[in-house]
């Protein structure tokens, strides 16, 4: 029987939840995909239709967290009236609020991801795409409201937010202050600096400056190359002429120099 998307989403969420509970209880290495399938009450082969590997299942947890955090942020009263920094702060807070009950699992998952950092670098990870799309919308709204200048780099900048969130998560895991006060301070400071830079149009200015420097260097290299080629051409032209040496001074072509001592032969010496 064909299952609906809602049923598939429910099954996926159940698989992730069972994996979290088992890994926290028994450890990441001790838990197998078969154990998770049994706990989720699905077939051993069925679980692979949702997650190809245990590592991908771990990332699936963060996919769900990202989607839930976006919903929580948008459900915040008067969220649409927030400025850019407040929206980013609320989204980041929502992520941490959802992660908090699973802090032990996040620690285990963080250790696994630290061993395979390339898993976090793919731009096609669903959690990164979800956060990137959401923050791109925040930036577009800020431009329309006159809070930010228009930029050609809004989406690349939005993509950096997901990487920032992974950094916040690592900072939060080491934060032992009450109510994660140091993490809150860290997020506020970083986002404050970033928003100030965006308002000043600094990313575009840096890119334009980098482009100017690059074009200047290319022009300089081309100029040096042209001069070098010109010198080589001159040297090539002058080389044959330099091989023809002029005859020594005073020598006529075909003339013979008189040997030394023959000057007195023309006249006889007087006895």
- Per DSSP, the total helix count is 10
The averaged pLDDT comes out at 83
Structural class: mainly alpha
Whole-number total of structural domains: 3
Overall 3D shape: extended
CATH class of the largest domain: Mainly Alpha
Q: Report Rg.
A: 38 Å
Biggest beta-sheet profile: none
**Assembly state:** single chain
CATH topology of the largest domain: Tetracycline Repressor, domain 2
- In terms of DSSP E residues, the strand content is under 5%
The SSE order reads: HHHHHHHHHH
Précis, in short:
With 271 residues, the chain is mainly α. The protein is built from ten helices and no strands.
Please explain how this structure is put together.
The chain has three domains: 1-52, Homeodomain-like (Arc Repressor Mutant, subunit A), CATH 1.10.10.60; 59-196, Tetracycline Repressor, domain 2 (Orthogonal Bundle); 201-231. Helices cover 68% and strands 0% of the residues. It has helices spanning 5-26, 33-39, 47-50, 54-74, 84-99, 103-115, 126-144, 154-173, 181-199, 202-243. Helix 1 (5-26) crosses helix 4 (54-74), helix 4 (54-74) crosses helix 5 and helix 4 packs parallel to helix 7 (126-144). The model is unreliable at 260-271 (pLDDT under 50).
């Amino acid at each position: 029987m064909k299952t609906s998307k809602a049923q598939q989403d429910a099954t996926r969420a159940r698989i992730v939840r069972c994996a979290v509970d088992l890994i926290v209880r028994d450890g990441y290495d001790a838990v197998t995909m078969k154990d998770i399938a049994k706990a989720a009450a699905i077939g051993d082969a069925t679980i692979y239709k949702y997650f190809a590997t245990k590592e991908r299942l771990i990332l699936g947890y963060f996919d769900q967290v990202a989607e839930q955090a976006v919903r929580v942020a948008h459900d915040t009263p008067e969220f649409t009236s927030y400025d850019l920094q407040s929206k980013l702060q609320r989204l980041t807070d929502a992520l941490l609020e959802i992660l908090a009950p699973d802090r032990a699992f996040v620690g285990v998952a963080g250790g696994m991801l630290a061993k395979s950092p390339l898993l976090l670098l793919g731009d096609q990870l669903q959690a990164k795409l979800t956060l990137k799309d959401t923050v791109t919308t925040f930036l577009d709204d800020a431009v329309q409201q006159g809070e930010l200048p228009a930029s050609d780099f809004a989406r690349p900048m939005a993509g950096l937010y997901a990487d920032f969130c992974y950094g916040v998560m690592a900072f939060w895991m080491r934060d032992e202050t009450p109510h994660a006060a140091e993490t809150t301070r860290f997020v506020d400071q970083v986002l404050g600096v970033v928003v100030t830079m965006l308002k000043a149009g600094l990313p575009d200015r840096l890119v334009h400056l980098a482009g100017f420097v690059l074009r200047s260097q290319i022009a300089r290299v081309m100029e040096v190359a042209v001069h070098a080629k010109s010198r080589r051409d001159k040297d090539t032209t002058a080389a044959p002429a330099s091989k023809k040496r002029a005859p020594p001074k005073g020598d006529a072509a075909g003339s013979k120099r008189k040997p030394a001592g023959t000057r007195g032969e023309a006249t006889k010496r007087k006895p």
